[in-house]
Design a protein that fits this description.
six-stranded mixed β-sheet, single chain, elongated, four-stranded antiparallel β-sheet, alpha/beta
Length: about 325
């Protein structure tokens, strides 16, 4: 349904995308997971024909989007990261406007607007101006505008950023329903739990590169036998205790890569029980108080940490 072949995007000497390559099957739910600044939105811009690639090709159906942009775009529904609505119009008026932009008219337009209002759960607020809506309600209208022409592929770029839990739940369930009915979904996010819930295939990006791709089981296998060990340290003097423990672990276990998050120290090992026993003894010998010690089986966050050495939400670039 969609092929991305060796896409590169440069802005001067800055390499934003570095040869990204994957394909998406019809009816698939495909997640692009990565921190802010990973290149997800740039890739979405190129896949939708809104940005030119420096090199590489995007094919939708059998159409190269750089050569048949208008025809290819007719197969797409796009939910941008930013709200793309007229705030002084009502929800219904926004849907009518965008429906007409898609070429819909008459009874067909009226029917699809009503169906979309019901799908996004705003039929009872159809006549209210969008400017009085919450952030979550605005995003639901934003999604509705992308669905009016019944696209083959729905591309969603961070659609749940900064919204209330109720709207977030509604959006996730709506996406799940659309995919179960056969719509191809491309969903970008830096919220791992959303991608885990929605997507059968997941691509992990960071710093413009595709680090891994596969289903959740395949991605977890990348960690292999490495299991996460987490130590929580009571830190009464700022980072002093944390730094003391990290330095000691590095001295005794120089091959272990540590990830520090607040007062938690994380590392991977194929024999977590043995490592944890040693660490408890060693940390106790330092006269540092340990609040807890735990072993966490591999999950998607572990995979990301294993591949990048940093937490997904830590990146703000």
């Amino acid at each position: 349904m969609l092929k991305v072949q060796e896409i590169k995007k440069n802005y001067g000497n800055k390499h934003v995308l570095k040869g990204v390559h994957f394909h998406i099957k019809e009816g698939e739910s495909f997640g692009l997971l990565g921190p802010n600044g990973a290149g997800k939105s740039t890739l979405i811009g190129i896949m939708t024909g809104l940005l030119p690639a420096t090199s590489g090709t995007v094919t939708i159906g059998d159409m190269d989007i750089s050569k048949k942009r208008k025809q290819a775009q007719q197969l797409l529904g796009i939910v941008p990261q930013e709200i793309a609505l007229y705030l002084n119009l009502t929800a219904k008026e926004n849907l009518y406007f965008w429906g007409k932009m898609y070429g819909l008219k008459g009874k067909e337009l009226k029917r699809r607007v009503q169906e979309t209002l019901e799908l996004i759960g705003l039929a009872d607020r159809a006549r209210d101006q969008v400017k009085v809506f919450s952030g979550g309600m605005k995003r639901r209208v934003n999604i509705g505008c992308a669905l009016l022409h019944r696209p083959k592929i729905l591309m969603m770029d961070e659609p749940t950023v900064g919204i209330d839990p109720q709207s977030r739940h509604h959006i996730l369930e709506t996406v799940k329903k659309l995919n179960s009915e056969g719509m191809t979904i491309i969903y970008t996010s830096h919220y791992m739990e959303e991608v885990e819930y929605l997507c059968e295939t997941i691509a992990i990006m960071d710093q413009g590169s595709l680090l891994a791709i596969g289903n959740q089981h395949e991605l977890r296998e990348l960690v292999g036998q490495e299991t996460e060990v987490i130590l929580t340290i009571k830190s009464e003097n700022g980072q002093n205790e944390i730094n003391k423990v990290c330095g000691y672990i590095h001295e005794l276990h120089p091959t272990k890569e540590l990830v520090v998050k607040g007062n938690k120290i994380k590392l991977f090992d194929p024999n977590p029980q043995e490592l944890l026993s040693r660490l408890i003894r060693e940390v106790t010998a330092l006269n540092v108080q340990m609040v807890s010690a735990e072993i966490v089986e591999p999950n998607l966050e572990n995979v990301f940490l294993y591949l990048t050495g940093k937490q997904l939400r830590d990146e703000t670039v």
